[in-house]
Amino acid sequence: MIPRVLTVAGSDSGGGAGIQADLKTMLALGVHGMSVVTAVTAQNSLGVQGAWELPAEAVRAQYRSVVDDIGVQAVKTGMLSSAGLVETVAELLATIDAPVVVDPVGVSKHGDALLAASALESVRRLLLPTATVATPNLDEVAQLTGVHVAAEDDLREAAAAVLAYGPAWVLIKGGHLPGDAVDLLTDGREEHWLRAPRHDNRHTHGTGCTLASAIASELAKGAGVPEAVTAAKRYVTGAIRAGFALGGGIGPVDHGWEFRS
User: Fold this and answer.
1) Which positions are catalytic?
2) Ranges for the Pyridoxamine kinase/Phosphomethylpyrimidine kinase domain (predicted)?
3) Is the model's pTM score more than 0.90?
């Protein structure tokens, strides 16, 4: 049977990030994507104009509907905007026997807040311990741990600070640093430094969602964590390179770049 991957995240009406990016990534990587919508956003290439959180019972019902009937080989979480949603999703994930990729979404590409400050402690205490892999960017590391990364040498400190909250592995995304796009994957014992050339392309909307979904897809296909992250990094690098203009602002990465290569 085709591997099945569930995304628990918000909807991006512009189609570049969130649930829409997740499902496109899953299709491109040969798995069956399913979704639990946690919030609806009015969003385009210029930013987020509005966001409406779904009730916890709606999130729980979607999750149970999918998992109890269809089953999953991996789960990816994205936008969980409130403490109540984080707690609901963490409770559900604690009972699942499948790898979980937690993308602790805090701020959109345009700087719009997507996570309430009151939810940070729930992310630290309840959500991160469920993660097979957590994938924070540098802003999210600072938000969660207080560690500010200014150079590549700071990535180890950032990783240790996130691992202290309980994920099995952490991928610290160093894309905001100058030079090559370098990420650090570690479980606290072994380290994998992942480098890719930086492409001069401003159209990078959905990068984080796409990477986390790609990791979940590879895990669902049976890859180990280092192999899954390496494959996902290759895929998202190609998607960034092929990112295209859409609307008047920042366009999305191209989830179907391999089909057009």
Assistant:
1) 173, 204, 206-209
2) 12-254
3) yes
